[in-house]
Amino acid sequence: MFSVITVSDSCAAGKATDTSGPHLVELIKQSLRTDTVNYLLIPDEEDLIKQSLIYACDVLKVRAVFTTGGTGFAPRDVTPEATRAIITKEAPQLTLAMTLCSLEKTKFAVLSRAVCGVRNKTLVVNFPGSKKAVGECFQSIVDVLPHLLNLLNEGEIERVRETHRKVQATGDGPVPQEVYHVCPHATGKGGDDRNSPFPMIDVDDALRQILATIPSVQTARKQLSRVNIPPFRASIKDGYALKSIGGKGMKKVIGYISAGDAIVQTNFTIDECYKINTGAPVPQHADAIIQVEDTKLVSRKNDYESIVEILAEPSASLDIRSIGSDLRMSEEVFQYRFPLDACQRALLAAVGEKVSVVKLKVAIISTGDELLHPYDTNAAADASSLEGKIFDSNTTMLVALVRQCGFTEDQCEIQQRVVKDDFESLKAEIESLTGAVHIIICTGGVSMGDKDFVKPVLKALNYELIFGRVNMKPGKPCAYATSKVTKFFGLPGNPVSAFVTFHLFALPALRQYLATLNETAPNAAKASLPMITVELLDAKYVLDPRPEYARASIVSRNGKLLATITGGQISSRLKSTIEADVLLELPARTETKPYITAGTPLKALVLRSDFISRYE
Questions:
Q1: Mean pLDDT of 408-422
Q2: What are 294-306's pLDDT values in tens digits?
Q3: What pathway does this protein act in (predicted)?
Q4: Are residues 302 and 199 in contact, defined by beta-carbon separation less than 8 angstroms?
Q5: Cα end-to-end span (Å), the chain
Q6: In angstroms, rounded to a whole number, what is the distance separating the alpha carbons of residues 582 and 609?
Q7: Residue 467, helix vs strand vs coil
Q8: What is the pLDDT of residues 442-482, one digit of tens each?
Q9: What DSSP element (H or E) covers 557?
Q10: Are strands 371-372 and 531-536 parallel, antiparallel or unpaired?
Q11: Is the pTM of this model over 0.70?
């Protein structure tokens, strides 16, 4: 991800049109192979420039921030001062390269005071304000930018070394252009490098990068009531409707009122009353309800009550719900959150509104020559056809998980497909879905096998590959890519890996995308699985070199939540998910901490609403 900040009083005030910033955005997209470039237009205010730079570096954590404007000698040209105040390292040779290039065009290039440097892991570059100068300066440094960005990212050290080898091989020639995917995927072919070219990133960083590419809006969509609830004065109790000024004592029962009856308009005396049911409309001239428990039946006539004694003193409005006491017309009913749950649907029904949702379109793909449809009766009957084959469980599981997480048919449309392990078949399938669906969830084909074609296919279809490996167990080969409309999740083919990575990465994206389609801001706190703190119940568990998400069941013992890991945690063992109530976050193994023991406090991500398996 990258950021472009145009600094200009006149453009920010709407007195001029910014051409340099948009031009720079396009240069970055074309040269650095990305669709994710944030653009910001601000006035020449030093504090605001500093705040914007810090936000891009520390909050958005972009790889590079490019500013345009405010680098001259005018009184309000303060971009260099703001930049110098926030960077932790200067990069004067980048500035020199731009100056030397610009001097070949104009002698006025010496009047630029541009600053280049680094803040933590983010590159910061000042460009002049003119569109022409922006293009010239960008081209003067673009060849070294990929290598520079790799140097800032510790996870890309192998690519740094590769560039160094190429430079040494070519002498003092230009730095070789970065290749963003150089993996020997073709069957029967290979190279000297047997390692994945993709850096391993942390789980939190992976999720942050995913959500940054999912469209979002900032305002919440509100539902207003078009009716009063209740729309009439309603009885809170089963009892008798009367006039409070009549006090207690003997009353003649002159009628019966049930829920759904019309409002009684007839006037009556203080010695009379109506028997009334809960929820029924209170007579127009009654102002109190006395519950049945505070009365005594005196006489009946033809099986109907005729005289009752009121034992409690009535007061005005006693046990009466006034019009609109629950919800008034035009009052806010709720702020939408998606997917819609039972409470929202109930409130919509209560105010007479139909459920209206723009559907999220999702495609779920399994890849593999070994896969058979689980309900293929012909294959099941022919034992020879099962040799070397397995039944596909991933699509069944993922469709069920999407539905289980609240994405009902009226909110989410799902396609299911199984694709063979060859480049052209997979390319044709993904190409047909790109632009037609919002999210593709694909399992398999993302690791290091000769037939793992997902990442090359995504490159061929001009997807921007955001990441290709995650530092986690299970799920290390997980990949994510983005296009203008369609977002692609490449989950590992092992069922448990797919199960875990769906919950950690795909589910938050599904929630945010559905919210955006329906014009409401996503609830960041509810995007991911709920987190609780538990204690390990197992006597000892040996840690993995990577952070692990172990499937565990929860026991409640005297109010304390204890977690016990559900057997073998190998990524192909789908049975470990059956009794799993949570995903247990386990730290990576270190020399000083190779294992954890009973009583160790751990964070756990809740998988289901009934997440306590046993009470002791």
A1: 93
A2: 999 999 998 899 9
A3: Cofactor biosynthesis; molybdopterin biosynthesis
A4: no
A5: 50
A6: 10
A7: strand
A8: 999 887 766 689 999 999 999 999 999 999 999 999 999 99
A9: strand 548-557
A10: unpaired
A11: no
Average pLDDT, the chain: 88
CA distance 354 to 104: 67
In the numeric block, the tokens 């570096």 are attached to: 57
**Helix crossing, 20-32 with 145-152: angle to 10°?**
80
Q: How far apart, in whole angstroms, are the C-alpha atoms of residue 483 and residue 610?
A: 37
Give the amino acid at 397.
Answer: M
Distance CA 275, CA 305 (A): 9
What letter would DSSP give residue 528?
S
- pLDDT tens for 132-191 read 899 999 999 988 898 888 888 765 555 545 544 444 444 444 444 333 333 333 333 334
Within 10 Å of residue 161's Cβ, how many Cβ atoms? Answer: 11
Decide if pLDDT at 193 tops 70: no
- Residue 612: the pLDDT is 94
User: What integer is the mean pLDDT of 287-312?
Assistant: 96
**Structural domains present in the chain:** 2-157 (3.40.980.10), 234-321 (2.170.190.11), 360-526 (3.40.980.10), 529-615 (2.40.340.10)
Q: Which amino acid is at 504?
A: L
Neighbours of 66 (CB within 10 A): 26
- Dihedral sign for Cα 470, 475, 481, 482, please: negative
Those residues with Cβ within 8 angstroms of residue 381's Cβ, 6 or more apart along the chain or in another chain = none
Parallel/antiparallel/unpaired status of strands 614-615 and 548-557 = parallel
Nearest to 10 by CA among 47, 41, 38, 39: 41
Rounded (5°) CA angle 388-391-397: 145
Residue 194 has pLDDT above 80, yes or no: no
Neighbours of 170 (CB within 10 A): 11
CB 578 within 8 A of CB 497: no
What is the C-alpha to C-alpha distance for residues 506 and 504, in angstroms, rounded to an integer?
6
Q: What are phi and psi of 102, to 5 degrees?
A: -70, -35
What whole-number distance in Å separates Cα of residue 412 and Cα of residue 406?
9
- How would you class 257 by CB atoms within 10 Å of its CB: exposed for 0-12, middle for 13-18, buried for 19 or more? buried
Q: In angstroms, rounded to a whole number, what is the distance separating the alpha carbons of residues 367 and 426?
A: 8
The CA-CA-CA angle for residues 467, 32, 457, to 5°, reads 50
